[in-house]
Automatic annotation (TrEMBL):
<keyword id="KW-0808">Transferase</keyword>
<dbReference type="GO" id="GO:0005737">
    <property type="term" value="C:cytoplasm"/>
</dbReference>
<protein>
    <recommendedName>
        <fullName>ATP phosphoribosyltransferase</fullName>
        <ecNumber>2.4.2.17</ecNumber>
    </recommendedName>
</protein>
<dbReference type="InterPro" id="IPR020621">
    <property type="entry name" value="ATP-PRT_HisG_long"/>
</dbReference>
<dbReference type="InterPro" id="IPR015867">
    <property type="entry name" value="N-reg_PII/ATP_PRibTrfase_C"/>
</dbReference>
<dbReference type="GO" id="GO:0005524">
    <property type="term" value="F:ATP binding"/>
</dbReference>
<keyword id="KW-0963">Cytoplasm</keyword>
<dbReference type="Pfam" id="PF01634">
    <property type="entry name" value="HisG"/>
</dbReference>
<keyword id="KW-0067">ATP-binding</keyword>
<keyword id="KW-0028">Amino-acid biosynthesis</keyword>
<feature type="domain" description="Histidine biosynthesis HisG C-terminal">
    <location>
        <begin position="207"/>
        <end position="278"/>
    </location>
</feature>
<comment type="similarity">
    <text>Belongs to the ATP phosphoribosyltransferase family. Long subfamily.</text>
</comment>
<dbReference type="GO" id="GO:0000287">
    <property type="term" value="F:magnesium ion binding"/>
</dbReference>
<comment type="function">
    <text>Catalyzes the condensation of ATP and 5-phosphoribose 1-diphosphate to form N'-(5'-phosphoribosyl)-ATP (PR-ATP). Has a crucial role in the pathway because the rate of histidine biosynthesis seems to be controlled primarily by regulation of HisG enzymatic activity.</text>
</comment>
<feature type="domain" description="ATP phosphoribosyltransferase catalytic">
    <location>
        <begin position="49"/>
        <end position="203"/>
    </location>
</feature>
<dbReference type="InterPro" id="IPR011322">
    <property type="entry name" value="N-reg_PII-like_a/b"/>
</dbReference>
<keyword id="KW-0547">Nucleotide-binding</keyword>
Length: 282
């Protein structure tokens, strides 16, 4: 039985559950459930605080986990990232009162407040800066106003919250984070089951990035058409009952689909259809 940690709340929880559902796994219907057995797929899911997931996986109590890269690194657990999942993206950055300091190298002797003390301490050490780090669980942007710190390090999306608090972002990003799959560092046990799980998630990622495109095109224009829709390896081309026409099927990136349809139509293609992909294996 593969034992997998899943976020029980926060910005990671719903997208993780949706991805696992799309990958064919059972998911809990009641948020109070802490453990869910998916006997058909030989997987047991444990719903944990996102910050605790790396600890459980690093100790070997669970085989895999879904968490944020920032939480993984901040935990300093013996766990490693093995797959990116692409949701819950965020950036950890420094901010302070405008006109005070402008770069991490000016933090010498100052105090930095953050919810990611592990990541920030490591970042300061990398730059050779001797500064104090204060750990706060939330509302980090008020730390300067309350005299707890001169600088904060916080997760930034648009920067609106920091600007409303009278703060300005300074320096380069500390860390670019997103959702990731993790496992115990150096662990190679149950490799076949782990790889099957990862293939399922990869299939979901592919299905979200591509659509299947079908169209009819005159036989003499097939080469020009497939140049627009090369697919992953090569498109499928089948003769139609009318020998002067062919049917083409190919995977096309979602963001390019409308443009490709326009170009195919101008080339002479007709009956151009796109359909969603629910699962894939490459």
């Amino acid at each position: 039985m593969l034992r997998i940690a899943v976020p029980n709340k926060g910005s990671l929880a719903e997208p993780a559950a949706a991805m696992l559902h799309e990958a064919g796994y059972r998911q809990r219907k009641d948020r109070k459930e802490l453990v869910l057995l998916d006997a058909e797929n030989q997987v047991e899911f444990f719903y944990l605080r996102p910050r605790d997931i790396a600890v459980y996986v690093g100790l070997g109590r669970l085989d895999l986990g879904i968490t944020g890269r920032d939480l993984l690194l901040d935990s300093r657990a013996q766990a490693e990232e093995i797959m990116r999942l692409g949701f819950a993206s965020s950036t950890l950055r420094y901010a302070t009162t405008p006109g005070t300091v402008a770069d991490v190298r000016e933090f010498e002797g100052l105090t930095v407040a953050t919810s990611f003390a592990g990541v920030v301490s490591a970042h300061l050490a990398e730059h050779g800066v001797d500064a104090s780090v204060v750990h706060l669980d939330g509302a980090v942007e008020t730390a300067i106003q309350l005299g707890v710190a001169e600088v904060i390090a916080d997760v930034v999306e648009t920067g609106t919250t920091l600007r409303n608090a009278g703060l300005a972002i300074i320096g380069d990003p500390i860390l670019e984070s997103e959702s990731v799959v993790i496992r115990r560092r150096g662990d190679t046990e149950e490799e076949a089951r782990v790889q099957q799980f990862l293939r399922r998630l990869q299939g979901v990622l592919v299905a979200r990035r591509y659509v299947m495109m079908d169209y009819d095109i005159r036989a003499e224009l097939v080469e020009k058409a497939v140049a627009l829709t090369p697919g992953l390896e090569s498109p499928t081309v089948s003769p139609l009952h009318d020998r002067g026409w062919a049917a083409v099927r190919s995977m096309v990136p979602v963001q390019d689909a409308q443009r490709v349809m326009d170009e195919l139509y101008e080339l002479g293609a007709r009956a151009i259809l796109t359909t969603g992909i629910h699962a894939a294996r490459l």
